[in-house]
Amino acid sequence: MPSLYGAVKSKTNQVFQDSLDYCKGALQSVSRSFALTIPLVEENILAPIMVGYLEARILDTFEDDIGSREISLEERIRSMDALIEILESPDTEESRHKAEILAKSADEIVQDPNYRDLVKNMQRVLTVHRSFDDETKECMVRWLKEMNFGMQKFLKQKVYSFEDLNEYCYYVAGTPSGFLTELIRTKSKVITKAESNVLLENERDFGLFLQKVNIIRDFREDILENEKIFWPAFLFEKHELKSSDLLKEENQNIAIQILDAMLDNAYQHVEPVKMYLNSIPEEYSGFRAGAAVNFAMGVATLDSMRGNSDVFFGEKPVKISHEARDSILLDPLAFVAE
Fold first, then answer.
1. What pLDDT, in 10s, does the model give residues 155-178?
2. Rounded CA gap, 282 and 128, in Å?
3. Which residue of 10, 56, 83, 301 sits 20 to 30 Å from the alpha carbon of 326, by its own alpha carbon?
4. For residues 218 and 225, is the Cβ–Cβ distance under 8 A?
5. What's the pTM value of the predicted model, to 2 decimals?
């Protein structure tokens, strides 16, 4: 007859494995691009990166998803702050209770079915989170707190200038990049001081670049779905237009001019990102390859949008060709070395 201790240990291990399997499946549902590349990273940082991404996705869902009823600014902020409080003390009964409340709220406040499922299964994400060492958990929560602060700031103000755009992109994408970089810099056993400094100097560019690609590519979709627009407002004001006016055929020439300005701004991050990726130590070659895939696809997407009116009038967001994608996947580091 198995001992009580053995039975409890076996059940505990099964709960953890079930939670880990859920996280892997959820990643596939909420981000096809990162689901493609995160599995490439080394085992000792794979789970923290995966869980950190899912927790950031939950925070972002509370920040901007539109559910079955109107969600006030105050309610969004309460939900976002509650998530951070849970992650700061994940083992307490109070945190478990708060997580249950947030999970129950998903049916009303989260429209996207994949994001809704993620929020409703928050306890599974937390189960894996609790398994990390204290240093990793502290790092993860610190960067998520920074993200939460910035998201709330831009819930209350619009993006007017390119400086505002940089600040916004830092909070929503530069902070995850900071978390990833800190993992590499603190866990690597072979990283040099020079490599560490280059990573630190360019970590923001990696996040800003990827976020700007999404912001540019999704312009039409965001307008049609009444999402908040993060193209700087001054670009429209100088032409005496509203952002939605770019979807009108008579404004096509102006739309392309504004698109060029957005693309030029995003391209400024390309060389710093190459420096960043080339400074990742060989010890984390899998992470570097995965990051290079996301970067190369981002560059290819920007290239495909130059002078492309489909950004404003196409039925779907502009995507790179299957041939271009396959070429990147075949040798992603070739695009970093160029």
1. 999 999 999 999 999 999 999 999
2. 27
3. 56
4. no
5. 0.91
